[in-house]
Every structure is written in C-alpha cells, then in structure tokens.
Amino acid sequence: MSNISSTTVIIIGLIAIIILAFRQRKVVSSHRGLLNIILFVITAIMIIFAGFCLLF
To answer: Which domain of life is it from (predicted)?
Structure first.
C-alpha cells in the first residue's frame, strides 16, 4: 500500500507543477514570472515532502 500511495503523491505533485507552469507561461516575459515559477516549483516540492511525511 505504501508504494501505491507514494506514487500517487508523486503523480499529484507533478500534475500540480505542470498546471502551475502552464499558468505562469503567460508571465514568463518578465523576471517576476520566472521568480513565480521557481516559487511554485518550491511549494510543489514542499507539498510532496509533506505528503511523504504524512504517509510514513
């Protein structure tokens, strides 16, 4: 069960990163857009780690 739940957490995290990247694609022209992408990726990684902490 732990393997299935961990893979689902990874998949959800990747989907979140992809959605946020597509959202921020419109603002990439400025440096602020790039910073937003980096912040969103960091928050997505934090969410994935929080999921792992809850699972184990």
So the answer is: Bacteria
